[in-house]
Amino acid sequence: MPTALITGASAGLGRALAAALVSRQWTVVGDGRDAAALDSAAREIGFTAVPGDVADPAHRAALAGACPELDLLVNNASSLGVSPLPPLARYPLAELENVYRVNVFAPLALTQLLLPALTAARGIVLDISSDAAVEPYEGWGGYGSAKAALDQLTAVLGVEHPDLAVYAVDPGDLRTAMHQRAFPGEDISDRPLPSSAVPAFLRLLDERPPSGRYRAADLLAAV
């Protein structure tokens, strides 16, 4: 039975991916900062909950200890940063540092810890990206630049570890709590649910194309 570690598994895309993998008989370990929400999701879906902040080195060590064997790492946990989204000229630098800690340094640090297990399994790394990593949207400079940095780390890891499949995936705009924080007071009910993007991720797992950056919309269009 393959094993997956999904960060940010208590809600949104992380929870949807956990549910899909459990339904495929995967063993899933999930983390999240909200222990109560994570435990509730774990009980409902059937995965192992390891609550904590992925930016905390001690928590990352606990996650690695919970996954001595690993086939898939999904670096999904992210921080939007300041809400409402400020222009870069007024972006609080301490907040921007935290965005980079969560969105760039933490995924790399966790991947470093888990590389031995992933290499042994010829496994897969999935880093959740965003269209803000490549498009210059006003107000998205903090989050978008962090995701652009994650994209580059993902690309280089794929070159440096050719036995692994290493993907950065843009899931598109989804109806999530983080997306709502980006548009406070606005109705985002027109955005699709996170579960709508899951088939794109499953296609990557099933077909294992070359390492690189993919858009869920493109993967779904070819299904």
Protein described:
The longest helix has 28 residues, at 93-120. This protein is globular. Helix 3 packs parallel to helix 4 and helix 4 (93-120) runs parallel beside helix 5. The chain has helices at residues 12-23, 35-45, 57-66, 93-120, 141-160, 177-182, 198-207, 216-221, and strands at 3-6, 27-30, 48-49, 72-75, 124-128, 165-170, 212-215. The protein has a seven-stranded parallel β-sheet with strand order 3-2-1-4-5-6-7, sandwiched between helices. The chain has one domain (3-221): Rossmann fold (3-Layer(aba) Sandwich). The protein is an alpha/beta fold and 223 residues long. The protein has eight helices and seven strands. The mean pLDDT is 95.
Short summary of the structure?
By secondary structure, the chain is α/β, with parallel strands linked by helices. It is 46% helix and 13% strand.
- The low-pLDDT segments are none
Output the CATH topology. Answer: Rossmann fold
Integer tally of domains: 1
- What is the mean predicted local confidence, pLDDT? 95
The CATH architecture designation is 3-Layer(aba) Sandwich
Helix content: 40-55%
User: Shape from CA axes?
Assistant: globular
How many β-strands, per DSSP?
7
Q: Could you give a short account of the major beta sheet?
A: 7 strands, parallel
How do the strands line up in the largest sheet?
A: 3-2-1-4-5-6-7
Strand content: 5-15%
Between the first and last Cα atoms, what is the distance in angstroms? 25 Å
Number of helices: 8
Q: CATH H level: which superfamily? A: NAD(P)-binding Rossmann-like Domain
CATH class: Alpha Beta
Q: Which radius of gyration do the C-alpha atoms yield?
A: 16 Å
How would you classify the helix and strand content by structural class?
Answer: alpha/beta
Compressed to H and E, one letter per element, the order equals EHEHEHEHEHEHHEH
